[in-house]
Amino acid sequence: MHTYLFVDGLDLMARSDSRMAGLGPGRLLRPGGPLWPTDMPCTVEVAADDPPGPGRLTLRVRLRGETVVWSDLMYPGVDGRPVECVRFRLEQYLGEMERAYRALTSE
């Protein structure tokens, strides 16, 4: 099972590198897991080559006040311009993470 990360309706992993497959959702989405924001920025591996190889897709996650910031991105946005950073409202971000993890664990 792979994790799919969508930002503004766009599949971040497929648009970054179509050879990549998201890592397991149990690892990425779990409470306190790598995508849960903290005051200390961290680099998170979110995808790897499929089939397995040396390629990795990472992003940087950090909390700034009530905003979660993903940076070190590079994929084409809806308008074709590169997306390098995205921001999420903390409350909405955590709610979506909790919803996705509950859906995963209730299967």
What do you see in this structure?
The protein is an alpha+beta fold. The chain is built from three helices and seven strands, in the order ββαβαββββα. Strand 6 (67-76) and strand 7 (82-89) form a beta hairpin. The longest helix has 16 residues, at 90-105. The protein is globular. The model has no long low-confidence stretch (mean pLDDT 89).
Would you summarize the structure shown here?
The chain is of the alpha+beta class.
SSE map:
Elements (H helix, E strand, L loop, with lengths): L5 E2 L2 E2 H5 L3 E3 L2 H4 L13 E8 L6 E9 L2 E10 L5 E8 H16 L2
Antiparallel strand pairs: 1-2, 3-4, 4-5, 5-6, 6-7
Let me know the number of strands.
7
Residue stretches low in confidence (pLDDT < 50, at least 5 long) are: none
For the sheet with most strands, the description reads: 5 strands, antiparallel
- The percentage of residues in β strands lies in 35-45%
Percent range for helical residues? 10-25%
Our count of helices gives 3
Task: Give the strand order, joined by hyphens, for the main sheet.
Answer: 3-4-5-6-7
Please report the distance between the alpha carbons of the first and last residues: 12 Å
Radius of gyration: 13 Å
Mean pLDDT: 89
Q: Can you write the helix and strand succession as a string?
A: EEHEHEEEEH
Query: What class do helices, strands and sheet pairing give?
Result: alpha+beta
Shape: globular
